[in-house]
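User: Structure please.
Assistant: Input sequence and predicted structure:
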Amino acid sequence: MTAATRPDRRKPDALRCIRFRPKIAPEAAGSVLVESGRTRVICAVSVEESVPRWMREQKVSGGWLTAEYSMLPYSTRERKPRDISKGRLDGRSQEIQRLIGRSLRAVVDLEKLGARTLWVDCDVLQADGGTRTAAITGACVALEFAFHKLLKAKLLAESPLKERVAAVSVGIVNGRALLDLCYAEDKEASVDMNVVMTEGGRFIEVQGSGEEATFTDAELEAMLALARKGVADLLAAQRKTLD
């Protein structure tokens, strides 16, 4: 890849084509297939009418939300063994599912949820970079569909969703700040960053690091500016699907 051209000919501040396919898992309370370029993730929400044991023991009111993330064996060119075959969850998957859970809990009023648990499952069908950010963005859509269903069934008095959330990757590739890296760009990036933001423009999480490299204040500002634009575009795509 040259310094002037992205693999898919996008401009530096352009997202990959983003699309949401609702109700991909009919038995779930809410579900969506999110497609970001060639990255495809199924996000589905299940409702359990109880809370974790630690909440009962500590007499914590309200409900809970937790997430699980996995890459299906055929999501990458070389088969990825299932975690169950290794007898443990790998560190990357554990880190990502915790990120998804934190990102969603930041925008959900757990008191309004009542004494129930929401399980958010994110399964990667095809991986071409940005699976964790696509999972967060898609999970927010699936979560809102689930709340609509619970409201319709009169299991909730009002939606616990305080505001929507979306996430996007940015990075420095061949000296340029780029938005929404595909895998080919991600593996060449000297700096890689994932940004999670709310609809109100507040940050939930910023994960950034240099790969045998450093970055300046100006490069950081350039990446954050791209992330703000990308999140705004993702939120607009969510609204188009949900509203």
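The first strand starts at residue 18 and ends at 22.
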